[in-house]
Specification:
Radius of gyration of chain B: 26 Å
Radius of gyration of chain A: 15 Å
Structural class of chain A: alpha+beta
Largest interface: A-B, 43 and 61 residues
Order of helices and strands of chain A: EHEEHEH
Number of strands of chain A: 4
Strand content of chain B: 5-15%
Number of domains of chain B: 2
CATH class of chain A: Alpha Beta
Number of domains of chain A: 1
Oligomer: heterodimer
Chain lengths: 91, 333
């Protein structure tokens, strides 16, 4: 598999977690695992900040700075001094 | 309110992918009429669904919709198409158009509650960044069930309504990367041709073909070779690949003028070695947007770390090219 050296902003608060397992279902990179009714962050560096876990956690136990990740959009945003770039992708 | 009446009409669809569909997919892959590969948002009946038939949710991008219906061969069900402006599920979820509000509204305007008896929706897993399942439940009463990443896994998924860990993972296989190449190529085509023509006039055919090689390296070779390139950053991988592609041009230039002054031959070779790699690296960095695993934070760090490097290298290369052309014109070489 491709070498993934992704920095990310994923934060998991075990205090708020109820072990519902929703994050395990929605994560496309198996970052979370459910062991004896508790969630463990098992592959933190594989997180791509898609935001699926945060959006689908009913208890606010996950925080991640997600958003459009295209370099093109972010370069445009940096040049025009906007915080968030608009991605033109449809592929 | 006539729009609402229309929205309540259940359209019919099949699992058959026609040649017209395939042609549409081909055009979409080549970024021709981008944003125009849409199906109408709303409710579709596949086969002969009863009030107990499953409801699948997808985007109004033809590639998304067709992948779903093709996976449901021989099944009866409903397909609820969200208005994602012709964008695929994952990208649209990231933008929020495949989103909670759109799903809530689409359930409402299609009158889905009167069409089916049950209260379960099967969503593609990659729609999750845009949809808060608990909000859908709260606002509409429908329970969101996240199916597999790939529509092709749906028949297996539907046997147990439990996705295996493998069904939940995204990959980025050679095939996945190959299908993305045309879009990358088309996006770079016009600037590439303009640069090639301009450079042909200034520097001749070698310079002109060198820039074409650098662009092809970034748009075609890079996606293919991605897993095998050293380093973990797209920028440095691109610089390395661009450097390899620049080598033959540098050598050719160095060896083609054996009678010229040594420093001129070195400068000629150097021009390619510093101006081509940033072109490939920039395109490589751009490709992060098409991958399935790069994070925003990681890409942002690369932009701040390497875009200035690329700009300086490229600028220096341009300056050298102009200087060489001037020397040539003045008869120095």
């Amino acid at each position: 598999m491709v070498g993934v050296s992704t920095l990310n902003t994923l934060k998991f608060d075990a205090e708020l977690c109820t072990g519902c397992g929703m994050c395990v279902d929605v994560c496309p990179h198996a970052v979370f695992a459910l062991n004896s009714r508790t969630i463990h962050v098992v592959r933190a560096d594989a997180c791509m900040e898609c935001g699926a876990c945060q959006v689908n956690c009913p208890f606010g136990a996950i925080q991640v700075d997600s958003g459009v990740g295209c370099a093109a959009a972010m370069i445009r945003a940096a040049l025009t001094r906007q915080k968030q770039g608009e991605c033109g992708c449809s592929g | 309110m006539t729009g609402q009446t229309d929205d309540r009409v259940v359209q019919t669809t099949t699992s058959a992918i026609t040649w017209a569909n395939r042609w549409d997919h081909f055009l979409a892959r080549w970024a021709i009429h981008r944003g125009g590969h849409r199906v109408a948002p709303g409710l579709n009946a596949l086969g002969h669904p009863t009030a107990d038939a499953p409801v699948f949710v997808t985007a109004n991008y033809t590639l998304s919709f067709d992948a779903l219906r093709a996976a449901l061969v021989g099944m009866d069900g409903y397909i609820l198409v969200l208005d994602t402006k012709g964008i695929n599920v994952w990208c649209a979820a990231g933008k929020g158009t495949f989103g909670t509000d759109e799903l809530v509204q689409r359930i409402e305007v299609t009158g889905l509650k009167n069409v089916v008896r049950h209260r379960t929706l099967i969503l593609p897993q990659l729609g999750a960044p845009g949809i808060a399942a608990h909000q859908i439940k709260k606002q509409t009463g429908f329970k969101v069930e996240y199916g597999p990443v790939r529509a092709a896994d749906l028949p297996a998924y539907l046997k147990t309504h439990q996705a295996t860990p493998e069904m939940r993972r995204v990959h980025f296989s050679l095939r996945d990367r190959l299908v993305l190449i045309p879009v990358e190529l088309v996006a770079a085509l016009l600037p590439m041709l303009l640069a090639a023509v301009a450079l042909y006039l200034v520097g001749g055919s070698v310079t002109s073909s060198a820039v074409i090689a650098a662009v092809l390296a970034g748009t075609v070779l890079f996606p293919i070779l991605l897993p095998w390139l050293p380093t973990h950053e797209f920028s440095t991988r691109g610089l390395i690949l661009g450097g390899i592609v620049a080598l033959p041009f540098a050598l050719m230039t160095f060896l083609s003028n054996p009678n010229a002054a040594l420093w001129l031959r070195v400068v000629g070779a150097l021009t390619f070695l510093i101006s081509l790699p940033p072109i490939t690296a920039f395109l490589a960095l751009n490709f992060t947007g098409a991958t399935t695993f790069t994070s925003r934070t990681g890409v942002r760090r690369e932009i701040f770390a390497y875009i200035p490097v690329m700009a300086w290298m490229f600028g220096a290369g341009i300056a050298l090219t102009i200087a060489r052309a001037a020397i040539k014109i003045l008869g120095g070489a």
